[in-house]
Amino acid sequence: MSITALDKTEILDGLFAVWDDITALGGRLTDAQWQTPTELPGWSVHDVLAHLIGIESMLQGVETPDADIDVTTLEHVHNDIGALNERWIRALRGLEPAELLDRWRSVTDERRAALTAMNDEDWSAVTATPAGPDSYGRFMRIRIFDCWMHEHDIRAVTGLTLGDDALDTPPARLALDEMAAAMGRVVGKLGKAPDGSRVRFELLGPLARTIDVAVQDGRGRVVPGFGATGDGDPGPTTVISLDAWVFTRLAGGRSTPERHPGAIGYRGDEAVGRRIVENLNYVI
């Protein structure tokens, strides 16, 4: 089992920054905006923050509250994690926006103190994460990804989106780092790229980067690069080119390729590229 080693200072700086961004964003919302439905089925803006409060509360050892109904019967609840999230959302739904924001500030203050005090051994220790067993540091990078995605879920429906000049931030880059790490599974398992495939994601815009994935024995693996050594190393067999922001919305299940006509380009084996993009959503 490969364990992801991540710098504690860098990850915590990114996590605390996205928490601060969410706090500032919440302070700008009107009462009506708090009740706006998001792209996440069944969730309003209020519910999105309630979900984040629930996750950080559980990480502080707070017991998940009971729900007033059987949440597994709700149409948008598909698994145990969805049911757990819904219990927190329903428990906090009665709070006024100011009370909810105060609750968010309180739990993130507690989390900041606990994480800052964590020693290096515990930071590197293997724990259960949404991506399987890995370091606690990897878990916190996943938390950056989750919080950053939800920040932009709120922005997308309240008219408070960021321009390109403000989109490139440390939390955004760390969220993309986490998404890049998942692309081996996306290409090999979800996208079913055949053995020998060398797939390049060519991400454009302010969050530009390249993600290369090689497939062998049915498994995709993120690799440092293709065709860069000059000694016969073959280049990619498929290149998928799209704006990095669009990539995050597709990989996070917030959008579909059909909503971005002409925004996704393919070179090489286009059939493989299209199948990967159709299965790019990897989140729970």
From TrEMBL:
InterPro entries: DinB/YfiT-like, Maleyloyr_isom, MDMPI_metal-binding. Residues 17-155 form the Mycothiol-dependent maleylpyruvate isomerase metal-binding domain. GO terms for molecular function: metal ion binding. It holds the Pfam family MDMPI_N. This is Mycothiol-dependent maleylpyruvate isomerase metal-binding domain-containing protein. It comes from Mycolicibacterium thermoresistibile (strain ATCC 19527 / DSM 44167 / CIP 105390 / JCM 6362 / NCTC 10409 / 316).
